[in-house]
Design brief:
The chain is α+β, with helices and mostly antiparallel strands. It is 36% helix and 13% strand. A five-stranded mixed β-sheet has the order 1-4-5-3-2, sandwiched between helices.
Length: 181
């Protein structure tokens, strides 16, 4: 590989440099075998775990799984935009009122909730909170009020959507309810 000396170097400097490197030989490139990427990781028990989860999920209905595991309640009518639903889910809508159903029988809770929601709709409140509890003292029956509230709210046309509240506002023991205005 030969190249012309830069124009700003005088001929004496170029001659001195050539004399200094006259014995030099170019280095031969080292030839290395290309490194092969490691094989992708494989979970040894993945198939077995997936089969177990599938088997367990088939033992219960979707509603039972959602409630028995203590996971959140989620409902949205098709008319509600994803953006509005996301704002409800993240707690970005101002909660204007709330009701606590702890300690009530199922019949008492239904009537109290119906009356509360009717008043909230009448007062044109957009978002309210309903505390139903987690059912920790319900024993094998599971969370009775939680299941009932989930069912009732889906039936009332004035309820547009609901989600379990964030942990700081009751978590899976409460729901934010978006109402028709």
């Amino acid at each position: 590989m030969t190249s012309k000396p830069p124009k700003n170097i005088n001929s004496e400097d170029a001659a001195l440099f050539r004399a200094a490197v006259a014995d030099a030989r170019p280095l031969q490139p080292r030839r290395r075998a290309p490194r092969q990427p490691p094989p992708p990781p494989r979970a040894r028990l993945r198939r077995q775990d997936e089969a177990l989860v599938l088997r367990e999920s088939l033992q219960f209905s979707a509603g039972q799984l959602e409630l028995e595991t203590g996971e959140e309640l989620v409902f949205r009518r098709p008319s509600i935009s994803a953006r509005t639903f996301s704002n409800l889910r993240r707690g970005r809508l101002a909660v204007r009122a709330g009701i606590d159903l702890h300690g009530l029988t199922s019949n008492q809770a239904r009537e109290a909730l119906r009356s509360f929601l009717a008043g909230a709709v009448r007062d044109r409140l957009q978002c309210v909170r309903v505390i139903h509890g987690k059912g920790l003292r319900s024993g094998e029956r599971g969370p009775v009020l939680k299941q009932s509230v989930n069912r009732w709210l889906r039936q009332w046309e004035d309820v547009l959507a609901f989600v379990s509240a964030p942990a700081h506002d009751g978590g899976t023991g409460a729901v934010y309810v978006l109402l028709r205005r």
